[in-house]
Amino acid sequence: MDRIGIFYGSSTGNTEKVATLISNMFGDDALTINVEDATEQDLDKFKYLILGISTWELGDLQDDWTDFVAVLKKADLKDKKVAIFGLGDQEAYGESFADAAGLLYSAISRSTNIVGQWPTTGYDFVESEAVKNNKFVGLIIDEDNQKELTTGRVKAWVEILKKEFGFSEN
């Protein structure tokens, strides 16, 4: 199996925690990389990319992603499968819930194959840039209000990704 690069930015540690959980569920085939230190060459090392971002304030990108989105836009991603996971607070920011995941999706959706869409059921929000075709563009986690659901959601999503990445059932 080709290695998976899990690229994340984390201000409070929650996105890093979820990235580590995803990595642990994939085992030795996944490597976590903070986008604060990442380069375009780091992206080239992986056939499968998982991008983790949290939403700040009223729909803003997490700080570490501000510069790295430009790197993603110019990177050659056409032969890669990419999945996105996002964190948000559906109660305090229900009108911009997990918007950063949607912004990330919009930045790269024309240049790559994005997999790992996730249902919107089980969440209570008003609006989200991360919803496309009635599904989230990837896994959405709310560590502020639904922390108890995180591990189960991650486990289910990783199983979806294994199929969508084309990994055999071993």
Structural description of this entry:
The strands form two sheets. Strands 1, 2, 3, 4, 5, 6 and 10 form a seven-stranded mixed sheet that branches. The chain has a single domain (4-164), classed as 3-Layer(aba) Sandwich (Rossmann fold). A hairpin with a 2-residue loop joins strand 8 (131-132) and strand 9 (135-136). By secondary structure, it is of the alpha/beta class. The mean pLDDT is 93. The termini are close together. The chain has helices at residues 14-26, 40-44, 65-74, 99-108, 150-164, and strands at 4-8, 30-34, 48-56, 60-61, 81-87, 113-115, 118-119, 131-132, 135-136, 139-141. The longest helix has 15 residues, at 150-164.
Write a short abstract of this structure.
The protein is an alpha/beta fold and 170 residues long. The protein is built from 5 helices and 10 strands.
What keyword list fits this structure?
170 residues; alpha/beta; Rossmann fold; 7-stranded mixed beta sheet; 3-stranded antiparallel beta sheet; 31% helix
